[in-house]
Amino acid sequence: MGAGRWGNPLLLLVALALAVRLGQFQGWSGFQQSMSWKNVNSTLNFFMETFNNNSNDSYLFRVDKLLRSQVQLTTGVEYLVSVKIGRTKCKRNITNNLSCPFQSKKKLQKSFICDFLVYTVPWINHYQLWNNSCLEA
Asked: Keywords, A to Z (predicted)?
């Protein structure tokens, strides 16, 4: 009824927003496989420091496995990364050493799969976490 050629504009807007949200980390056009491990490691270190600083957990987490890393050049460098992270044996208030061993006690083991987008200007050591999502693994 009077919706015209495009149907309900509000419904179209909601569908577009949902499509963008669901496809957010599925691989964006313009991103390509990352080849600079030095910059990927710096980006991972930045993400883990940010994650641990914002976590309420008593223990630090660290990267267990890099699942995917893509890069896009803009005014800086954007990294779209998927990682599996795990809880370590190191207490957060004692140390910030991300080479701590993972929890061995089954009751204390915890891991997440995290997708994140970091904008960086590596030549001036500038990093910003633009988006992240972590789900318990």
From this structure: Disulfide bond, Signal
